[in-house]
Amino acid sequence: MKITFLGGAETVTGSKYLLEVKQDSKTTRVLIDCGLFQGFKWLRKRNWQSLSIDVNTLDAVLLTHAHLDHSGYIPRLYKQGFRGTVYTHHATRALCKILLEDSGHIQEEDARYYSRHGLGKHKKPQPLYDQETARSSMSLFKSVNFQDRVTVGDIQFYFRSAGHILGAASIIVEAEGKTVGFSGDVGRFDDVLMKAPQPLPPLDILLLESTYGNRRHGTKDPYESLAKLVNQAVVDGGAILVPAFSVGRAQALQHMFVTLMNQQKIPKMPIYLDSPMAISVSETYCHFINEHRLTREQCEAMDNGVIRTLSVDESKEIAGQNFPHIIIAGSGMASGGRILHHFKRLLAVPNTTVLFTGYQAGGTRGAKMLAGANSVKIHGQWIPVKARVLCIDGLSAHADYVDMEQWLKRSSLSKKTHIYLVHGDPDALEGMRDHLLQTTDFEVDIAIYKQVLSV
């Protein structure tokens, strides 16, 4: 058995792991996750490079969850000719239908915008893939239940709930008498929305995400922190702009804002969910009611407590709204989406509050703004940042390094389990490695981009 790290190695994005099993003269090849590189431009350029494999020899893609840094390359793979099966959980399939089509649409829109305004170095900018390709790629998806065993060639695998977001899973692969685990993104034990991640079975090898490998989540109650920030923003009298990931984070924020208003801990004010994708995702969360912590009544309250702006015209009409009000819009790292249009209008206004609610990858506007950037470039224009830029702790959907240690100890792993750290920035990978070496008996290494591991 061989594992090749084609992404999600030495970086927190672009997760792709090629697993190959050779039996006699036949080789079974599956790709574990198929994500886009995001953040720094030098990383995003990898999305345009062909994979170092013939996609026609690929038997299947096994998908941990729907976030684009794990799923967003699937339409590109389809465009290159891949026609194998994409296996994932039912909820992940439902979310991917929303996210992948939206990703294709945004890339088309961005290409048209750059072409229309003569931005960028290409005379005719092209999208990585379009909406129709994304829609067509959904024909490859086959969804399964958690714990159901599936066979592809000489590989058998199953999904195990990982918390994090709706449908998220760790993938357990068995082949050649070995058992290998791919953690995917691992959730927290006390997440606002999601249930705790399930423990892992005995494993020979574990590829372990390390997003929060060098950071702890705060101990403050996120509801209290959010209420304090909102109440200060109300005193300031401006808009509250909340860049939010459409899957998971937007739903948690809806629930929290509505709950705080109902408890009279923050004033009643309009909450705009200015993201067609987040609106669809919220409906999906309510459909898969048994896969998270919220009751049906809480889901309905979450949806009924916000103003949904589906069309572009409805989004533009927010500009005429009296202050204060809350706008939740994508994307979570301010790398695209409708939040940018609100930024262009309000970032230069001193009584505006920008509230980031999660990890900001290096090179993104979110990371630059939190680092104190005086201006950010949006659609070719430099916009001054005079707004108050804040970040609330406690809403991340990722386990931190202590959570991860506890998850591993609750699992059925042994001293012989060899851990390879993936999906983390360099400092996070080093931090996670040092922590696990000090607190556990596992052998721990950091995976290297394009490394080939023989199991």
Description:
With 455 residues, the chain is α/β, with parallel strands linked by helices. It folds into two domains: 2-215 and 397-454, 4-Layer Sandwich (Metallo-beta-lactamase, Chain A), CATH 3.60.15; 222-391, 3-Layer(aba) Sandwich (Rossmann fold), CATH 3.40.50.10890. It contains 14 helices and 22 strands. A seven-stranded mixed sheet has the order 6-5-4-3-2-1-22. It has a seven-stranded mixed sheet with strand order 7-8-9-10-11-20-21, with helices on one face. Strands 14-13-15-12-16-19 form a six-stranded parallel sheet, with helices on both faces. The radius of gyration is 22 Å and the shape is globular. The model has no long low-confidence stretch (mean pLDDT 94).
Q: Characterize the main sheet.
A: 7 strands, mixed
Strand content: 15-25%
CATH architecture of the largest domain: 4-Layer Sandwich
Q: Shape from CA axes?
A: globular
Average predicted local confidence, pLDDT: 94
Report the strand count: 22
Any low-confidence stretches, pLDDT <50, length ≥5?
Answer: none
Estimated structural class: alpha/beta
Helical residue percent band: 25-40%
CATH class of the largest domain: Alpha Beta
Calculate the terminal CA-CA distance, rounded to whole Å: 5 Å
Number of helices: 14
Radius of gyration, in angstroms, nearest whole number: 22 Å
- In CATH terms, the superfamily of the largest domain is Ribonuclease Z/Hydroxyacylglutathione hydrolase-like
- What is the number of domains? 2
Summarize the structure.
This protein has helices at residues 41-44, 68-71, 74-79, 90-116, 131-137, 222-236, 249-262, 276-287, 296-304, 312-317, 339-346, 365-370, 401-410, 426-439; strands at residues 2-7, 16-23, 26-32, 60-62, 85-89, 141-144, 150-152, 155-161, 169-175, 178-182, 205-209, 240-243, 271-273, 307-308, 326-329, 353-356, 375-378, 381-384, 388-391, 418-422, 443-446, 452-454. With 455 residues, it is an alpha/beta fold.
